[in-house]
Amino acid sequence: MKETVAVRERDLGTPASTQTEMVNLTIDGKLIEVPVGTSVMHAAALAGINIPKLCATDSLEAFGSCRLCLVDIEGRRGHPASCTTLVEEGMVVQTENDTLHKLRRNVMELYISDHPLDCLTCPANGNCELQDMAGVVGLRSVRYGFDGANHLDDTTDNSNPTLPMTPANALSAIAACAPRGFESRVTAGQNDGFLGSDCVSCGACVQACPTSSLMEKSVIDLGQPEHAVITTCAYCGVGCGFKAEMKGDKVIRMTPWKDGKANRGHACVKGRFAWGYATHQDRILSPMIRKSITDPWQEVSWDEAINYAASEFRRIQDQHGRDAVGGITSSRLHQRRNLSGAKAGSRCLWYQ
């Protein structure tokens, strides 16, 4: 494991532009230079200006659904979404004023009018973007009430063993399926349920979800993590960078690290959810050796294990030649095997 980092990484709202040509613009009085193709939201974030958002994330292309990131742009009518508006040379942007504040608060009122008011018992409490944004816009009451048609009685889908889906907590304008609006529903695919869909359970939806609609069962059972450390996924040999989000010395969940060079913030289902082996009761935590396949394993120090393996390599090579030794290793080579008379060690095989 490496350095301790924040549980919640900063999200710049939209992916970075890959263009090399630069443009200059002004946001809230700050002169900023960014690449062509950068969104106004991303440019503002680079300048330390956080525009309220719900549907935007720098891991996905923006689609401008939540309408919370509205801004004023000099010379333009209306209030465009900063996540889908690209910067232009000389553009002048204002991210905060009375009109924008009222518009955002009205939008939040609509979302909250169709959302359970169970923040104290919600598993996302303390790590909920919807909760954060309600505070940012100063929402204190909902004028529309909570009667009439809503999604509050939608049934939770527990078919996925690690990832329940709770439509009642979703934001309909940010649902992952068409159509937009009230008739939309969070779904894993065109068929009902996770198991009948094409979903591969990579967990990217959990990363982007601003509520508890998509939440790992480990977090629901154990609570929110309070610190994180950078580590490397031990499931295969790719070397994906992960954050082990923890409470004390207990792993709560594994999330892909944005700066991981092998995976760049993405994960497969194994790295994201199949980390139970790390704390499994059968996990071997100390090196062991045995001089014969019929002998019991003996727990030894690392120095003793390495020296013993080296001496056996040398003995076999002296007796049968340099090509008599072969090796197999893996990040998850838990079981010791016997191949063609192999004498198996802690994490390697040698045979004659």
Query: What string, H for helix and E for strand, traces the elements in order?
Result: EEEHEEHHHHEEEHEEHEE
Molecular shape: elongated
Structural class by helix and strand composition: alpha+beta
Oligomerization status of the protein chains:
single chain
Largest sheet: 4 strands, antiparallel
As residue ranges, the low-confidence spans are 175-179, 334-352
Q: Count helical runs.
A: 7
Could you tell me the radius of gyration in angstroms? 26 Å
Classify the helix fraction into a percent range: 10-25%
How would you describe this protein?
- One of its GO terms (cellular component) is membrane.
- Keywords: 4Fe-4S, Iron, Iron-sulfur, Metal-binding, Oxidoreductase.
- One of its GO terms (molecular function) is metal ion binding.
- This is NADH-ubiquinone oxidoreductase 75 kDa subunit, mitochondrial.
- Pfam families: Fer2_4, Fer4, Molybdop_Fe4S4, Molybdopterin, NADH-G_4Fe-4S_3.
- With 352 residues, the chain is α+β, with helices and mostly antiparallel strands.
- Among the domains are: 58 residues, ADC-like domains (N-terminal domain of TfIIb, Single Sheet), CATH 2.20.25; 63 residues, no CATH class.
- It is 18% helix and 13% strand.
- It has seven helices and twelve strands.
- The chain has a four-stranded antiparallel β-sheet with strand order 1-6-7-8. It has a four-stranded mixed β-sheet with strand order 3-2-5-4, covered by helices on one side.
- A hairpin with an 8-residue loop joins strand 9 and strand 10.
- The longest helix has 19 residues.
- The C terminus is likely disordered.
